[in-house]
Amino acid sequence: MTAENSVLAGTLGERSGTSALPSGRQSVRGLDFGRVFAIGFGMFAISAAWAIYNAYVPLKLKDLALPTMVVGLIMGIDNVCALTIQPLFGILSDSVRTRWGRRLPFAMFIAPICAVALFVVGISQGVAITVLSVVVYAVLMAMWRAPVVALMPDVTPSAQRSKANGIINLMGSIGAVTALVGASLLLKRCGMAAAFAAGAVIIAIAIVALVTMVKEPAEFRRGSCQDVPRVRPWKRFKEAIVPRLHLKSDERRSFVLIMLVIFLYTIGINSLETYFTLYATHDLHIRASSATSALAFYAAGSIVFAVFAGIIAMHIGRKATMSVGLGIAVIAFLPMPWIGSRELIIPAALLFGIVLTLVFVNALPWIAELGGAEHTGTMTAYYYLATSAGAVISPVLFGAIEEWTGEYRWIFLYAAVFFMMALSCMPFIRHGEARRTVSVAG
C-alpha cells in the first residue's frame, strides 16, 4: 500500500466507522523528514520572493509618488490573482498527470518566469512598467503556489501534517529571513534593484533544489492517466466558490467556520505584511534598510517556533493551538499604537512572529482534514480562497484608514480587532483535528 493510499484508507475508515484496512497488525505511520524538507524548498522560494515583494514594492510605489490607497490597490493585485487563479490551479493540479507528476510541473515551468518578472519590477523606472511587472509576477505566482503547497498533504499522514507543515513553514521562514537580511545589505550598498534581483536568484535556486530532490509518487505521474477523470477547470472553480462537499451538516458548519476564521485572521496579518515598512519609515522615522532588518525578526520568530507549533498541535489540538496564538497576539497588539518605538520594534516583531506561527502552521492541516487524500489540491484551493479573499480586502481597507488618520500605527489595533473576531468563531468548530492514520504492518 502506498503512502497516499494508506492515508486515504485511514480517512475513509474513520468516516464510515469501520476499518478500511484488512485485519492484521497495524501501526502509526511516521513522518518522512527528508521528503518534507525537500518540499520545504518550494516554500523557501515562495516566502523569500513574497518577503522582498511585501517589503520593497510599497516603498518603490511610494517613491513613484502614488497615494497610499493606490499603493493598497496595487498591492492587492496579487491577492485578486490568488483569489481567482490560485484556487483554479490548485484544483486543476489534482487531475494533471505528467512524467514529473501532478504538482511539480507548475513550479518547473512557471517559477523561472516569475523570477524574471520580479527582476523587472526592481529595475523599472516608470509607473506603467512597474505596475505591469507586478501584475505579471502576481499572475504567475498564483499559478504555481497552490500546487507546490499541496505536495505536503499528498505525502504526509493526517496525524503528522501539523508537524510537517511546521517544518515547511520553518523552511519558508528561513527563506524570508535570508531574503530580507540579504536584501537589506544589498539596499544599503547597491540600491533597491539589487534587492529585487536577489529575490529572483533565490527563486531560481530554490526551485532547482525542489525539482531535483522531490519525486512524486508513481500514481501521480504519467501512466495512471486512465484513472483520472476528465474535468472542466472552470466548473471545478465554480464548485470551489460554492463548495460541494460530501459532508454531514455539522462537518459542513465546521468547514464554513474554519474558512471564516482563516479569512478574518488573514485580514489582520495582511495589514502588517503590507504596511509594516511604511509604519517603520513614516511613523517611527526608521531608514528603509533598518525597517527591513526589523521585519526579518518577524520571520526569525517563525523560524524559532515553526516546528514547535506543529508539535504543540499534536498534543493539545489544532483549534486550541491556534486559539492560544490568536489570544496572545490580541493582548500584544492592542497597546502597540501607543507604546510602539524604535527600541521596541525588534522584540515586538520577534514576539509576533512566534505567536502568529501557532496560527498559520496549523491552518492548512486543519482545513485539509475535511477532504480526502485524492483532493488535497482542492482543499488547498479552499484554504487559499479564504486567505486570498482576506488579503484582497485588507490593503485597501487599511489604506483608507491611513488616509483618514494620517498614521500607520493603527495597523496593530486593526489586526487585533480581526483576531478577536476569528477567536469568537472557535467555540463552534467541532471538526478538523488530526485522525489516527494507520498502515498494515506485516
From TrEMBL:
Keyword Membrane (UniProt): yes
Chief location of this protein within or outside the cell: membrane
One example GO MF annotation: transmembrane transporter activity
Source species, domain of life: Bacteria
Signal peptide: none
Record-annotated Major facilitator superfamily (MFS) profile domain positions: 35-434
Membrane topology: Multi-pass membrane protein
Transmembrane portions of the chain: 33-53, 65-92, 104-121, 127-146, 167-187, 193-214, 254-272, 292-313, 320-339, 345-368, 380-398, 410-429
Protein keywords: Membrane, Transmembrane, Transmembrane helix
Annotated localization: Cell membrane
One Gene Ontology term, aspect cellular component: plasma membrane
PANTHER family given in the database record: MAJOR FACILITATOR SUPERFAMILY (MFS) PROFILE DOMAIN-CONTAINING PROTEIN (PTHR23528:SF1), PTHR23528
The protein's name: MFS transporter
Source organism (scientific name): Bifidobacterium fermentum
Upper classification of the organism: Bacteria, Bacillati, Actinomycetota, Actinomycetes, Bifidobacteriales
